[in-house]
Each structure stands twice: as structure tokens, then as C-alpha cells.
Amino acid sequence: MATVKVLQIVGYKNSGKTTVTLQLLKLAKSRGKIISTIKHHGHGGALNMPDANTDSMQHFDQGAECSIAYGNGVIQMHQRSEDATLEDLIALAGHENPDFILVEGFKEAQYEKIVLLHSEDDWITLQKLEHIQLVVSPKVVELDNVRMILQNDSKQLANWFINWMDGDSHESV
Question: Where is the Molybdopterin-guanine dinucleotide biosynthesis protein B (MobB) domain (predicted)?
Fold first, then answer.
């Protein structure tokens, strides 16, 4: 796998991580970029699985460690791994040689981050994260040495992201 840039979008539950991830994904696609995404399912419990009657799910339910279905240009994979790391997931997501990978969640990982705040109180704990590049907040928060933009300023977010995408001095794997 070639070197690929990774950008994390992190914050507490309902802070807008998926909304921002989708905005960045749409912007990147409009600029001709190839993107993979990884989402941490932090809601507890197992992921919702496809209908148990599909052949690939029957394979998985009967003990296949990995079940892959392919059709109409789409690959669907279910794989068991009790201890998958973000690096393992990045390796999977990097299979198609994306320009970069957007990671939603995995706060403690060591990649460049956009941190989303609900309130100033969130910053008390989230400022301890490493590699913070940008903070997005619903109102102005005074931060030391970290750029902050307002949550509803999609133009500034887009400009920042375009600079991040086109830059070459970012963490990658």
C-alpha cells in the first residue's frame, strides 16, 4: 500500500462527527479525490447485520472468519476480529489506494485530528488529545495554538480541508 494521509474527526456523541465527515467526503469527491472512511461504532453492541438469509450471512453465521459478497461493483465484507486496531482497519481501507482516509472516532489514535465541541467544557478533556489541527465549536472558544472555526462556517471548514488535502506535510501511514 502506498503512503496515505489519515484525518480523524473526533468529539463526543452527537457533536456532529458524521455531518462533518460527510461534508469533507463530498468536498473531496468533488475535487476528484479517492477516499476511504472508517467509523468507530461507539454506540455499544454489535453492528446491524444484513438479512440472515443471504448466502454471505449464512456463511458468516456458520463460522466463516471472513465472508465476502460481490455484486454490481460493490464488495461487502464481514470479518471477525476481537482485537482489530485502527492500523488494521487503515490497512483494509487502504486496499484501493485512496488519496486519504477519513476516520470518524478513535479519539486516542495518533493521527491529525479535527476536534468537534458541544461546549467549552468538552475542551477540558479533548485538549489532551494529540495532533489536533482544527477545533470546530458552536461558539467562539479561546484556544492556545490551535485554530478554531465556528460550527456553522462551512466555507472556512472547506477552505481548511482543501489546504489539508493539497498539503504534503501531514501524518500518513
Answer: 6-136
Q: Measuring CA to CA, which residue among 10, 3, 4 is closest to residue 130?
A: 10
For the chain, the structural domain boundaries read: 5-44+83-166
Residue 160 grid cell: 481548511
What residues have CB less than 8 Å from 66, skipping those under 6 apart? Answer: 77, 78, 79, 80
Handedness of CA 103, 109, 114, 117 (dihedral sign): positive
Q: Name the pTM for this structure.
A: 0.87
- Computed over every residue of the chain, the mean pLDDT equals 88
Q: Please tell me the class of the 5-44+83-166 domain.
A: alpha beta
Q: How many CA atoms lie within 13 A of 104 on its CB side?
A: 21
In which order are the strands placed within the sheet that holds 100-104?
35-39, 100-104, 5-11, 112-116, 132-137, 147-150
Q: Are the beta carbons of 20 and 116 closer than 8 angstroms?
A: yes
Can you tell me the distance from the alpha carbon of 155 to that of 152, in angstroms, rounded to the nearest whole number? 9
pLDDT at position 44, please? 63
Q: Is the pLDDT of residue 170 over 50?
A: no
The helix (H) or strand (E) run that includes residue 156 is helix 154-166
